[in-house]
Specification:
Length: 331
């Protein structure tokens, strides 16, 4: 509704600004409580940014190569994830965790400057409805159903990837891989999706059959995840999983902009992302509960573990203390 009232560009700018403020508060916080407040502010900004960016891409590409456009936008996720995994731990180890957060704030500031300087709203089409004066057109029951169902599908799809990323390293470590090798194996799959995400959007647009790309990509991703604990050579299955995971992304993100009219899309995206985040949180909670239930370990999400999986999950790791300003310890 805010996007319909104030425009996607302004909402995206506000989201980036909130992320900067929240990051600065977190980096300067003297204790956990204020840091948690900063993280909440960052999260609110991130949600606003996600909704607004999706609407901005839809405004430019609806009726054209929208799956390709969404695929290119979604490539930013694995790029940012890979950069964060490669740089932030080293910065935190060499300096402090506050330095790593400050770098994130600086990167967000650059993004805000680029958005304000370079982005332009698309030309208004003659048949486009005018922006509502209030907080947007009211959604119909069909709009709500479509927004929720597509958000649920996208959320469950991503939740499977997050659960794999959270628990596969424990499984690989249980099979004898070092922690570094396990993380590197998973990162290869993430890097593979850098190519497959825009490629999948392009294929969906060129073939004119986005449902085929979505269903085929989802089933292939599930197959390669299932093969990971069953066959040797985990790197191969992780790479194939990363490639297949990226193929449906652009097509799935383009479903809602093609289903709802422009004057109701911002509100629909609000419902979409609400269901998306709730489904991810729910799946992660279920996975965590399953991992800590009696007689199981994190690796059991992939296969029945031996005692090695439990040892890998409980292995001490060097992590910072919860108390601010103290040296790292093993937990």
């Amino acid at each position: 509704m805010l996007g319909q009232r104030f425009g996607s560009r302004h909402i995206a700018s506000a989201g980036l600004a909130l992320m900067m403020v929240g990051g600065f508060v977190t980096a300067q916080s003297p204790g956990f409580a204020l840091a948690a407040v900063g993280r909440v502010v960052m999260g609110v900004g991130g949600v606003l940014l996600n909704v607004a960016l999706t609407k901005m891409v839809a405004d430019w590409f609806t009726g054209r190569e929208i799956s390709t456009g969404m695929g290119v936008m979604l490539t930013s996720f694995p790029v940012g994830m890979a950069l964060a995994m490669a740089l932030l731990p080293r910065l935190a180890a060499a300096h402090s965790w506050r330095t790593a957060v400050h770098v994130c704030v600086a990167a967000t500031a650059v993004g805000l400057i680029v958005l304000l300087s370079l982005y332009r709203d698309p030309p208004v089409r003659a048949d486009a409805p005018a922006r509502p004066a209030g907080f947007g057109a009211r959604l119909t029951g069909r709009d709500v159903t479509l927004s929720g169902s597509i958000g649920l599908a996208w959320g469950l799809f991503n939740a499977g990837f997050f659960v794999l990323g959270g628990f596969a390293p424990a499984y690989l470590a249980a099979q004898g891989a070092s922690v570094a090798d396990a993380a590197f194996t998973l990162s290869i799959g993430i890097m593979a999706s850098l190519v497959s995400v825009p490629l999948g959007g392009y294929l969906a647009d060129r073939l004119g059959r986005p449902n085929l790309v979505i269903v085929g990509g989802c089933l292939a991703t599930a197959l390669f995840i299932a093969l990971l604990p069953l066959l040797p050579g985990p790197t191969l299955w992780v790479v194939l999983m990363g490639i297949m995971f990226g193929l449906p992304a652009g097509a799935m993100m383009s479903l809602l902009p093609q289903a709802l009219p422009a004057n109701r899309l911002s509100t629909g995206l609000g419902i979409y992302y609400t269901v998306f985040y709730l489904s991810i949180v729910g799946c992660l909670l279920l996975a965590g509960r399953r991992a800590t239930s009696p007689g199981t370990s994190g690796a059991r999400l992939l296969r029945r573990p031996g005692h090695g999986g439990k040892r890998a999950l409980r292995r001490p790791l060097p992590l910072p203390r919860a108390e601010w300003g103290q040296s790292p310890r093993r937990v």
